[in-house]
Amino acid sequence: MGRHDTILALLRDRPFVSVSELISVLEVSPATIRRDIDKLSEAGAAQKVYGGIAAVDAEHRRRAIALPFSDNRDIAVAAKRAIARSASALVRDGSIVIVHAGSTCFHFGVEIANRNVRIATHSMPLAGYLAEFGTCQVTVSGGDLHREPGLLYSPSGFDQGFYASQFFVGALGVGPSGILESHPLLVHFVRTFADRTNEIVLLADSRKFDERPPLVALPLSRVSHVVTDDGLKDAHARMLEENGVRFTIADTSRGAA
After folding, report:
1. What is the DSSP letter of 207?
2. CB atoms within 10 A of CB 13
3. Are 26 and 33 in contact (CB under 8 A)?
4. What's the 3-state SS for 8-55?
5. SS3 assignment, position 79
6. What pLDDT score was predicted for residue 50?
7. Which terminus of the chain has a lower count of CB atoms within 10 Å, N or C?
8. Cβ 177 vs Cβ 142: under 8 Å
9. Coil, helix or strand for 7?
């Protein structure tokens, strides 16, 4: 079996394979893997994405892929840090906030780690960071660890009877229909926490407005505020305005500092 066949075989079992894993499986150089990815993407057999390669559907249309947290954390870092910095200005001292799983929310949690707040999260990476480096109060959901989205889940977790001032949520995609996801468990969390907070703040870098995952986690009418970066397209800004959603544009030059 050739390298391209091996890559496509891996993609039949899951939606995404990282460059590092392909290097290990195929035992070739990173440059060779990137050439293979380019060729498969150009042929329409797969989709070149940040950090690796993704499957395409039957019509070979682009689709959003939920990357593992370890792969996604270091993508678009300047934008995510800028968003985190701008969003931190919305947090009130002494309040309780829920911070969702995902890489943008992780950077946001890092930004407010030493604020006088209580952070409730089901994100294992964020909880680990806050335990080691933060001074804020922390509440962590218990339950089973779901490694790919990097979260803890239990039917009796803190989402039962827990209320907060603000819910800071990320998204795999954003469109006129709302916050979009591909993982049913993430959809469950978004909907549950949305009912337990006074204000929902969406943290999404501008790339997410071009993505169209299949599941609507929450309609835009439920979102109080969107914080994104200065790569937001005019058409996407109009879409937010037409839906009555306030939004803040973060300066990526400051986020990269």
Report:
1. G
2. 8
3. yes
4. HHHHHHCCEEEHHHHHHHHCCCHHHHHHHHHHHHHCCCCEEECCEEEC
5. helix
6. 60
7. N
8. no
9. helix
At 18 the pLDDT is 80
The burial class, CB within 10 Å (0-12 / 13-18 / 19+), for 104 is: buried
Contact between 26 and 3 (Cβ < 8 Å):
yes
What pLDDT sits at residue 160? Answer: 62
Contact 232, 139 (CB under 8 A): no
* Residue carrying structure tokens 């209320």: 163
pTM: 0.74
Give the model's pLDDT for residue 88. 97
Rounded to whole angstroms, what are the CA distances from 112 to 47, 85, 91, 138, 155? 35, 9, 8, 12, 28
Q: Count Cβ atoms within 10 A of the Cβ of residue 79 and give its class: 0-12 exposed, 13-18 middle, 19 or more buried.
A: buried
Pairwise CA distance, residues 113 & 254, whole Å:
19
Nearest to 173 by CA among 241, 220, 123: 220
| Tokens encoding 93 | 């001292």
**Between the CA of residue 191 and those of 58, 181, 194, 215, 219, what are the distances in Å?**
30, 12, 5, 12, 10
Phi and psi at residue 38, to the nearest 5°? -60, -45
| 10-residue stretch averages of pLDDT, the chain, 257 residues long | 86 76 88 92 81 64 55 77 96 96 94 97 93 95 78 70 91 94 84 92 95 89 96 96 95 66
Of 208, 220, 235, the C-alpha closest to 104 is 208
CB 38 within 8 A of CB 22: no
3-state DSSP assignment of residue 227: strand
